[in-house]
Amino acid sequence: MSDRYRIRQIVISTGSVTTLAGSGSAGSSDGTGTSASFYLPYGITTNGTNLYSVDFGSNLIRQIVISTGSVTTLAGSGSAGSSDGTGTSASFDYPRGITTDGRNLYVSDYNNHLIRQIVFSTGVVTTLAGTGSSGSTNGTGTSASFYHPEGITTDGTNLYLADKYNHQIRQIVISTRVVSTLAGSGTSLSVDGTGTSSSFSSPIGITTDGRNLYVTDESSSTIRKVVISTGVVTTLAGTGSIGSLNDTGTSASFYHPHGITTDGTNLYVADKKNFLIRQIE
Fold this sequence. Notes:
This protein has about 280 residues and is mainly beta.
């Protein structure tokens, strides 16, 4: 919960909600459980043992041990910047999205328009892609550009990015750092289609089951599906008008959905302005 400054846990089988970490007041203190504090935690990912959260108000990357609730700062000086370095000698400027391939973390550094990499074993932070200025140029590494990147996910080979204000889904080949546009015309609309003949309206959250991408399209209040192999984009759920109706597919409604994840069978959506966690089977 970003503006409640907490990390919450939900048992899927029962819907039981508990607070794993965070005092409920803004801060950046390391500690265990509710003795730790966050300042607008945003994206989150896991390697099965730990959670990793982008604490965007503090410009920090935080680690939470799931079994104990112990919170530490993995990277970030706490001051806005774009310096590469190790651990707290590196800096970020409003990091938003985060994902992992099991060896590294990848962070969308929102105000820097960059994609950053953090090596688990060393805490070394480097810039994987982005010029540092807003743009929509495809290219390799720091010759490519983004415009306020948000959600990020990976299939282990590629990164997939919700490039919010370019209204596009971008792909980054991890091994080569080559950046391309997988889908989205660049115009803020909600149109199904293939590749750049489709359009999005402020895409924010993104997840993958390895074959498809699932995107929360904030301004259209819909959930979109992108077939990775073909770039075909369809609307999976949402009427396109704001609401909170539970129903099937495009008969259901959302109100500015943000975060999204999958367990391989179901999708789970943070329906931001409805203050709900929604499940899509």
